[in-house]
């Protein structure tokens, strides 16, 4: 692949139709992973490879985990800003349980960045990140994680922002709002998102690929997950 989505967004060369197509492909990739109960856990523009035809490929499976292994695991938090900007709020609040919704939050952040040309929530710290998220969130917020209530109550929002003020595309705003629900249980799934008007024109049933088994890698190494995924893709191609 020629570059990654981070570089392409900074170059400001994408037409609207490219943005629709890129999100469609990203959702299709996530649907494929989730159909095998595999959570990527590190989706961001740096891990979305892209070429001159706007073909997108998802990379970096070093943090990927099978859903049954996502209880009491170490959150994907680091000092790298590029990681924090796409981290779901439940992880910022200390949750040690990863879900498919974690990936969907990251997709919503990437969609916002594609349309704005800059990160949607460019926090400079965990608390700063939460503050920026809460500026555009009007939901009832409750999480049963240690210190979550203390963290949220310590944040004072001076001025709330509306996504409609930042983004003019109504379909895009609607999809972002469904992806960026603060409560992970209320976020749209990849399968549901693929039926949304923002990407529907690219969605055809014969392109739907689902894993035929639950993916499990005994040593949970990136290389092993990639081998398992490639084997499933080869199997699908032969069937076609």
UniProtKB/TrEMBL annotation:
GO terms for molecular function: ATP binding; protein serine/threonine kinase activity. Residues 1-199 form the Protein kinase domain. It comes from the Eukaryota. PROSITE patterns: PROTEIN_KINASE_DOM. InterPro entries: Kinase-like_dom_sf, MAPK, Prot_kinase_dom. It holds the Pfam family Pkinase. Keywords: ATP-binding, Kinase, Nucleotide-binding, Serine/threonine-protein kinase, Transferase. PANTHER family: MITOGEN-ACTIVATED PROTEIN KINASE. This is Mitogen-activated protein kinase.
